[in-house]
Amino acid sequence: MTETHVEPSRFIDKPAWLNYQGLALDWPRALGLIAVHLLVVLALWFFSWPALGVAIALHWLCGSVGICLGYHRVLTHRSLQLPQWLEYIVVTIGALAFQGGPLFWVSNHRMHHAFTEDNERDPHSANRGFWWSHILWLIYPRGETFNSEAHRRLAPRIARNAYYCWLSRYYAWLQVPLGLLLYALGGWPFVLYGTAVRIVVLWHSTWFVNSATHVQGYRPFEIPDRSRNLWWVALLTYGEGWHNTHHAEPHMAPAGRRWWEIDMTWWLILSLEQLGLTDHIKRPSH
User: Fold this and answer.
1) Residue 10, Cα to own-chain centre: how many angstroms?
2) Each residue of 190-249: pLDDT tens digit?
3) For residue 162, pLDDT beyond 90
4) Strand partners, 229
5) Which of 203, 105, 86 lies closest to 155 in space, CA to CA?
6) Which of 56, 65, 150, 244 is deepest in the core (most CB within 10 A)?
7) pTM
8) Whose CA is closest to 115, among 102, 99, 128?
9) Is 272 left (phi over 0), alpha (psi -120 to 50) or beta?
10) pLDDT digits 0-9 by tens, 79-129
11) Distance in angstroms (rounded) separating the CA atoms of residues 235 and 213
12) Domain map of the chain by residue range?
């Protein structure tokens, strides 16, 4: 592996509004995002250390187990196989992350890999600006980002699964039983930190993979796109920040390669392997 330097795109420093002129703002989705962020502000008046601990624990559960393992490495890239009952559990935890149902998440991530940084076909192309790739792509619908027919075409296995289709439709309602459980355990502090705070921090953690890792970091693999490895994003996302390595070999189960490239989700996969709960793990040959 060789270190390479790639000049930032000429699009990165442009004001964001230049990159999405003519697109209609999805007001319900935008207001929903704003509302959840405002709940985080409200949570400041309900702070407690146990509530913060709940937020951190659920960030790991939904982020590492649900998104990184379930949505990303199992469903999207088929980097390993789990027993069907366990796959359903980890994907359901992924739905609890409140980042869309499995059909939406998987299909858009596959578009990102197939057309990386293409301004028209990559849903969150970094060439359209940092804020576009970070969040604006979610509130300015365009292309096939929110096209259900395209989602079914790009993720046919998921589209044929009755449970995943149900989860794709009703994933948001999973926050209700979780919120009731948290209220029973610790009242409103547990609810606000275990839902709103955890959701918003995990949103931005995941979105940094789309935005920051196409701008900053180092490139162990010389590949056509500008993806980079960025240590602090890897820490926030349990290994997903080694993005250049992932783009070079997207179907491999580990994201990190060097001993110091911490990949907590890979550690989880190794633990499942020791317990006999996973097989067909795709490992790099080098």
Assistant:
1) 26
2) 999 999 999 999 999 999 999 999 999 999 999 999 999 999 999 999 999 999 999 999
3) yes
4) 218, 242
5) 105
6) 244
7) 0.91
8) 128
9) alpha
10) 999 999 999 999 999 999 999 999 999 999 999 999 999 988 999 999 998
11) 13
12) 48-274
